[in-house]
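Run log, item B.
One chain of 600 residues. Sequence copied directly from the ordering sheet:
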Amino acid sequence: MRGVCALRTIVMMACAAVVATDAFAVKTLNLSVGTAESTFDPAAIDDIPSSDIAVMMMEPPLQYDYFVRPVAVAARTADLIESSPDGKVYTLRVKHGIFFTPDAAFNGKPRELVAADYVYSYKRLLDPKIASPNYYLFENKLLGADVVRKDAEKTGRFNYDAEIAGLRALDRYTFRVELNKPDFEFVYNFTTTPFAAVAREVIEKYRDERNRVREHPVGTGPFMLGQWQRSAKVELIRNPDYREDFVPTPTTDADKKLAQATTGKRAPLVDRIVINVLEESLPRVLAFQNGELDRLELPRDLTDRMFEKNALRAEFVAKGINAQRALEPLLGFNYFNMDDPVVGGYSLEKNALRRAILLAYDTDREIASVFKGQAEMAQQLVPPGLSGHDPKLRLRPPFDPALANALLDRFGYKDCDGDGFREAPDCKPLKITRSSTADSRGRIQEEIWKKSMNAIGIRVEFFSQKWPDLIEMSRTGKLQMWGWSWIAGGPGGDGFVSLLVSRNINAINDMKFKLPEYDRLYDEGAKLPLGPARNQVYRALSELAAANSVLDFGIHSYANDLSQPWLLGYKRHPFWRTPWKYVDIDEKARDKAANGKVSR
């Protein structure tokens, strides 16, 4: 959740396990994720599954209006009472009478959510010891934060009591965030997990040596942590003291029909949520088909099992299954480490090598075999539907192995020893290493890379590892080539163009891209309100990325979101992934479907 607070992912494949026989003893929503949770500390989260779970327990001040399209922010725990025209000042007022769930840290006393909790929580993003992956959201931007941050870097201790001019509680319920430069998309950060509130007492009681609280989430949300089998199953249970919060009233006829059984009811409508973790696609799809999973984001490698020509098969339509298909606000890309001695650097010959690799890679085959046609080729940094996207801009290198070979010949990459593979211009060995995940998807990608590089005489080897390990190695510059995805948490495009800003190295700029002109243009664009002038800057930034061949722009993927007929009131939101407090389960319909299976 970065820039507009996006989160990196591998366009994750979720899955499900068989639900225990007592799953329906209370009204239960059965969900799944494809990779294990890493932490429930909002300041430390850097992956979608952990973020999705944590934000149901610990709340940011704002959320999206569930039904409104185009999307609009709405109050969650606080009202946005000021958003200055210059994009620098945001003032929010916390609603009275919101309480954290009981915990030993509060010594048996009710603990109300107040403005100081958000101030404290945002200071945690600045703490060097925590090393928040979302620190960049405030870096060189939050007024007065640099002094406190630098002092912490020198002393090894962050002073949470130090005044920061741009982060203040004005009174018990009102807090203000003031930036030293405009950020017209900053408001969307207030809807995201890193901007959720935690209580200082909880952090100080349970923190580890890095000031993180990985396993003891205490928040104000509609759900709290129940039983937890790490890396296998997470159970969330209803917060019995959750404040008054009602399913909003839709305005369109379609939404009124969709939410006719839920509108106006007090949230949450379900008693618990069970989230199973499995890495393979087939068990997940089978669990959904057997009614053991209430909602399914269909794994792309099994699209043909339930879809035909991008439409749900008739047999599943007849069962009342609902399908919602949407192009995700996502950029999935392959990148080069610009600090790497083989593929990095800004010289013409190194740029030619990278460009040849991009020209030779068969993305069409990847879309067909990995994504089963559920993706489109990206042509720029900003995905369609977000501010800054230019539908006329087409910067992607074509698939042209012949041109790639000619380019390599021109810049002196030739086969010096006659073994069929090219060497570097000085006839020194040339080998590239592409990293991949240790799963079926990674194996397919390796096959495509192997065939593509053989076609231009470049020797390629593969480094296979699990996703969390690759993320850490990627951030610290230990991978030569890899690919991951960036998904938006809001309708702005800033999170995507900020991927290549040099000050974001060691945060989100895993490419280690350092280009003064790119940084200068980005900073100039940040001063502009959303609109044509800013869009021109985003276009120029994409052109610089293409000119330096730092990444391939990759793909934008489609999500096929399926829900059972007994899941009531569910509407897919482009940026709010977990609106589960507003959905309900028709237990009679689910029981009837289950009994029907037994009778057969």
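Observations after the first pass:
- Residues 1-24 have pLDDT under 50 and may be disordered.
- The two ends are 46 Å apart (CA to CA).
Flagged for discussion on Thursday.
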